[in-house]
Amino acid sequence: MKRNLTIVFSLLLIVTFFSAFNLNGSGKQNAKNGPDSILADRKHYVDELRQAIKGKENMPADSVFKNIKLLKGVPAGKLIAIMNFGYSNSLGVSCGYCHEPGHWESEVKPQKEITRQMAAMNAAINNQLLKNISGLQSANPIVNCTTCHRGSVKPALDMPAVK
Ligand code: HEC
Ligand code: HEC
Fold first, then answer.
1. Is 114 close to ligand 2, i.e. is its CB under 6 Å away?
2. For residues 12 and 30, what is the distance between their CA atoms, to the nearest angstrom?
3. Ligand 2 close to Cβ of residue 154 (< 6 A)
4. Which pTM was predicted?
5. ∠ at Cα 57 (92, 49), nearest 5°?
6. What pLDDT score was predicted for residue 1?
7. Which of 108, 118, 125, 130 to mutate to test the pocket of ligand 2 (most atoms within 8 A of CB)?
8. How far apart are the CA of 134 and the centre of ligand 1, in A?
9. Structural domain boundaries of the chain?
10. pLDDT profile of the chain (163 residues), mean per 10
11. Is 104 in the pocket of ligand 1 (CB under 6 A)?
12. Quick one: pLDDT at residue 83?
């Protein structure tokens, strides 16, 4: 129960973050991470899905999509923005890294379930570990996917050599 609340809280943070940039169902997109072919691929699927859910952007994702375990209650239009800006952009990949495109509800790629567990780890860092460190500069310090991944599937362990 406590874990569920933690996840919900952290999702709220993500949703707030996206709201701040006005990335609602019809918002303009300007994701910048990755070569043009990756961006074009993502745009293709995002446009297709936006068309498919037209009129249902503000309905809860779990009532519009088929297999929602993590992003329950998040508006369907925002789920698409999270997929594009939150997940794909942070890892520097296109949708096919976690999905078989078109079969979005499928669990055939392990990266999809790994992502749910990453989100839970992320929530634990934000809501338990980081909260208990006093004297930080921010009132509400957080980490997100980008903090570690920075556009790569594998987070770096070393700084590039300083010249
Ligand atoms: C890093 C992994 C990852 C990437 C990249 C990713 N997704 Fe997802 N996607 C997920 C996860 C995890 C879920 C399930 C969320 C849940 O359980 O609430 C999901 C769910 C979905 C769903 C709901 C499917 C259903 O019927 O249940 C759609 C649609 C979707 N993604 C589209 C996309 C699109 C389009 C892209 C590219 C712009 C994308 N995803 C990129 C991990 C990813
Ligand atoms: C605290 C750092 C950290 C945060 C925050 C984090 N990750 Fe990760 N992530 C990692 C590490 C470390 C790995 C394992 C890399 C390896 O295999 O060496 C990983 C691996 C993954 C993988 C598996 C990649 C593969 O194919 O092997 C996915 C998918 C992923 N992360 C998605 C996410 C998403 C989405 C978020 C945000 C919800 C996120 N991560 C947040 C550190 C992080």
1. yes
2. 22
3. yes
4. 0.87
5. 50
6. 47
7. 118
8. 35
9. 2-149
10. 52 45 36 83 98 98 98 98 97 98 98 98 97 94 97 93 76
11. yes
12. 98
Confirm or reject: Cβ of 98 under 6 Å from ligand 1.
yes
Structure-token match 């999809």, residue found? 112
Transcribe the chain into DSSP letters: -HHHHHHHHHHHHHHHHHHHTT--TT-------S-HHHHHHHHHHHHHHHHHTTT-TTSBHHHHSS--SSSTTSBHHHHHHIIIIIIIHHHT--GGGTSBTTBTT---SHHHHHHHHHHHHHHHIIIIIGGG--S-SSSS----HHHHHTT-SS--SSPPPP-
